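Re: weekly structure request thread

Next one in the queue (545 aa):
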Amino acid sequence: MLDKKAIYENMKELVAVPGISGTDTEKAVAFKIEEMLKRIPYFQEHPENIMLVPLENDPFERSIVTAFLQINPDCPDTVILTGHYDVVDIEEFGHLQDIAFDIESVTKRINEMPLDEDSLKDYQSGEWLFGRGTADMKFGHGLCMELLKYYSENNVISGNLLYVAVCGEETNSEGMLRAVKFFNDFAEEKDIRYTALLLTECFMMEDQANDTNKYIHYGASGKIMPMFFFVGEATHAGEPFLGFDPSLVSTEVYRKLQLNIDFCQERFGEFTPPPVCLKMQDLKSTYSASTPLYSVAYYTIITVNIDPEDTIIKLKKIAYDAMTDSIKLINKRADEYSGFIGNDVVKYEYKPCVMTLDELQKEVEKTFDGDLQEHLKEYALNLQKQKMEMQDIAVQLVKHIYELYKDKRPMVILSFIPPYYPDVYLEKSDEDVNRLMKACDSVISYAKEKYGETLKMKDFYMGISDMCYTGLDKDMNFDNLFKNLAGVGSVYNFPAEDMKKFRVPGIVLGGYGKDFHKHTERLHKKYNFEILPDLYISLINDILK
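Done, posted below.
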């Protein structure tokens, strides 16, 4: 059995290092994890088996942390233990922000903040630990470290363990995207074979207040984020019909796409939510009496069974219809105004125009003097050096490409912004998948018999996770999507070819936690420190018999 006090101390020590995504504090967690791994006697004898692998061209100088426990050099079978070490910010903790990373203090004082009925009940029970990073997901790393220590001292499996702690999951999954190449290179270097990936992220519950089941997820929902860049024609507010307001088209796209079930999918009884808008704004930087020239909006679409080609066609149609309807409305209002004043107003005639980012770039390349792709890469990297968010860089990149376009006119440019998450589902005919599923079945039975806990298998982990990068569907045509992914190849490295090689069956088997990203984030004591560690030993022993 693992030392539950050691797991708690590991988690407490890691939580105390903030590691907020997209800040300079994030890289400090990697150094802390490295320091803690070096306390394990095995890694004191084999220090070369711990590596910090830096992200390339990363403005925050982050790294992924890897630790290879080579228990049986003659056996190539290797199980990956992984999870992210970054957390979201703590603004919602209000006056408790200064203790948000102190588990014991914030657990005592969390009742000073507003608590809903379920949170209050858990607080009063004394069975939960509060604090940023407890559930999402530094408990998982505390557990992984004790698993490494346990197996380094108990040679009971035929195979090896590779622990990889990644950064950036709460932002753009930069860490896992870097890890994919590492996994491929490391497997070749060490002549090993990955048989399973175990993600120690806390599981998702549909009804966290009433659902007493625990879950193992063996598929992962994905996410695409279509971005609509609207180009208008600016005019003085006193002459509104001499221009074209791009925000009008943006609102029409919103009306047609927001919560549109045509973009929902079903697979194996799991249903995705409809699309929602994540950001909508014009790009005016200062006040003036002019209408905006540019507007932008991007949306999120959760995926479990999406056809990229068909989706692009549907999104282009929405943009085209939105622009058509906007032009009709402008003309209708112009006619109404003409009747009101008794004179025909001067107005411009516009035609709908929708282009994908790839189509626009091809047009620009016809007249651009030089290597357009190198120019765009340099432009994007300069923005990255200013520590601009990747999504804002994508917006500015599309804007810049349009500015290089000779045929200036109102239009909609359709692209996708990072991060992109493919959906993943395990093919049960695969030998490794079959072995993993049997091991999960055994764990489910073991949890019921020994602890009275009901574990259930779910087809998809509906909270976006790094497991999305464990099995890119080779049969799906992603080329057109990649061509329209703003910033890819410069500030966003999507290792499509490496991902096609890195196909490993993965599951999410994590702790029992609630309210990720809220001030009421919390972790259940008994399940996480007394039951789950034993389930992990049973699972790993089964996979690596």
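The mean pLDDT is 94. The chain is about 40% helix and 20% strand.
Next request, please.
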